[in-house]
C-alpha cells in the first residue's frame, strides 16, 4: 500500500469517527470538536515550520488573523463566492504573507527570528484601528456563512464540525506526505545543519521561505475556519497570547510530530475548558476565573515537558514500545 493511500484511508476513518461523534453529542460539544479541528491545522503548520525546519515563530496568530479577515471580507463583499473558495483564498493570502515574512527573515536565527515574528503578531491586528469602516475597528466583522446544503437534515454545528474536520484532515494528508517526501527531508537537513545542507546543494533561503509559506497557509486556513465557525473576525481573538498558545500546544504535543499537533490541539481546547468549569463550580472571583485556565495550561505544559521532553506523543510512543517489548 502506498504512503498516500494509507494516509487517505486514515483520514477517511478519522472523518467517519468525527461524523459519528457529532451525531451523539450536544451542539456545544460540536463547537468544541470543531475548535480542536482548526487549532489542529494551525499547530500542524507550526510543527512543519519549527519541528521540520527549525524556524521559531511567535507570530502565527497573525496568519490566523489574515485568514479570518479574508473570509469575513469575502463573505460580506463578495457573497456569491462559494465558501470553499473563500477558505482557499484565506490560505493563499496568508501563505503569500508568510512567504514575504520568510523572505525577510531568511537570514535570521533563534531569538532574532522569534522577535521578528512576534512583532508581526503585535502589529498586524492594530491595522483594524486604521481602517475601522472596512475592518470593523475593535469590534471586528460579524457575518453569517450559509454553507449548509439544502435538504441535509443535520444541525448547523454538526455541519460546521464536518467542514472544519474535512479541511483539517485534507491538510494533514498533504503535510504528512510533504514531511515524508523529498521536500521534508530537505527541510530536516536545513534544520540539522545549514552548512552541510548547502554543501549538498540545498538552497537554504528558498527552503526556509517555502516552509514559511506552507506553515502560514495552514495558519490562514485555521483562521478562516475559525471565522466560519464563530461568524466573527475580531482583532481581540488574535492577540499575542494566541501565538504563544499555539507554540505551547506544539511543544506539549511533541515538536516535529503531526500526531503531536493533534494532542496539542486537544490540550489547547480541553485543558482550559476543564479549568474554567472547575473555577465556575468553586465560585471564585472574576479575576481568578479569567486567569486560572491559562495558568493551568501553563502548569500542564511544564509538567509534561519535564516528565516527557518529547511531549505527549513521545510519551505515547514510549508506552507503545514498552508494551511491544513485554509481549512474548
Automatic annotation (TrEMBL):
Subcellular locations according to the entry: Cell membrane
UniProt entry keywords in alphabetical sequence: Cell membrane, Membrane, Transmembrane, Transmembrane helix
Pfam families to which the protein is assigned, alphabetical: BPD_transp_2
Keyword Transmembrane: yes
Chief localisation class: membrane
Its membrane topology: Multi-pass membrane protein
InterPro entries: ABC_transp_permease, LivM-like
Lineage: superkingdom: Bacteria
Cellular compartments per GO CC: plasma membrane
Record-annotated membrane-spanning stretches: 31-49, 61-81, 87-105, 112-131, 159-179, 209-234, 246-271, 292-312
GO MF annotation list: branched-chain amino acid transmembrane transporter activity
UniProt name for this protein: Branched-chain amino acid ABC transporter permease
Organism: Kibdelosporangium aridum
Amino acid at each position: 500500500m502506498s504512503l498516500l493511500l494509507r494516509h487517505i484511508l486514515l483520514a477517511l476513518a478519522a472523518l467517519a469517527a468525527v461524523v459519528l461523534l457529532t451525531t451523539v453529542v450536544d451542539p456545544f460539544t460540536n463547537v468544541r470538536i470543531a475548535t480542536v479541528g482548526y487549532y489542529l491545522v494551525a499547530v500542524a503548520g507550526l510543527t512543519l515550520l519549527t519541528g521540520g525546519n527549525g524556524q521559531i515563530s511567535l507570530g502565527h496568530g497573525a496568519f490566523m488573523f489574515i485568514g479570518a479577515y479574508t473570509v469575513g471580507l469575502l463573505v460580506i463583499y463578495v457573497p456569491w463566492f462559494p465558501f470553499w473558495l473563500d477558505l482557499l483564498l484565506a490560505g493563499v493570502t496568508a501563505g503569500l504573507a508568510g512567504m514575504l515574512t520568510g523572505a525577510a527573515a531568511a537570514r535570521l536565527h533563534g531569538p532574532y527570528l522569534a522577535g521578528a515574528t512576534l512583532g508581526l503578531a503585535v502589529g498586524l491586528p492594530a491595522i483594524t484601528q486604521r481602517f475601522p469602516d472596512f475592518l470593523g475597528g475593535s469590534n471586528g466583522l460579524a457575518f453569517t456563512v450559509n454553507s449548509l446544503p439544502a435538504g441535509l437534515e443535520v444541525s448547523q454545528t454538526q455541519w460546521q464540525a464536518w467542514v472544519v474536520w474535512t479541511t483539517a484532515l485534507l491538510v494533514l494528508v498533504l503535510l504528512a506526505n510533504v514531511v515524508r517526501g523529498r521536500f521534508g527531508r530537505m527541510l530536516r537537513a536545513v534544520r540539522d545543519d545549514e552548512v552541510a545542507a548547502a554543501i549538498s546543494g540545498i538552497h537554504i533561503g528558498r527552503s526556509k521561505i517555502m516552509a514559511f509559506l506552507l506553515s502560514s497557509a495552514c495558519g490562514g486556513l485555521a483562521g478562516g475556519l475559525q471565522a466560519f465557525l464563530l461568524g466573527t473576525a475580531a482583532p481581540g481573538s488574535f492577540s499575542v497570547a494566541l501565538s504563544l498558545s499555539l507554540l505551547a500546544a506544539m511543544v506539549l504535543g511533541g515538536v516535529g510530530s503531526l500526531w503531536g499537533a493533534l494532542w496539542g490541539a486537544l490540550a489547547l481546547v480541553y485543558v482550559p475548558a476543564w479549568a474554567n468549569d472547575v473555577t465556575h463550580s468553586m465560585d471564585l472571583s472574576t479575576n481568578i476565573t479569567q486567569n486560572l485556565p491559562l495558568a493551568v495550561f501553563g502548569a500542564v505544559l511544564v509538567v509534561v515537558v519535564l516528565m516527557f521532553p518529547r511531549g505527549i506523543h513521545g510519551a505515547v510512543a514510549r508506552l507503545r514500545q514498552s508494551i511491544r517489548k513485554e509481549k512474548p
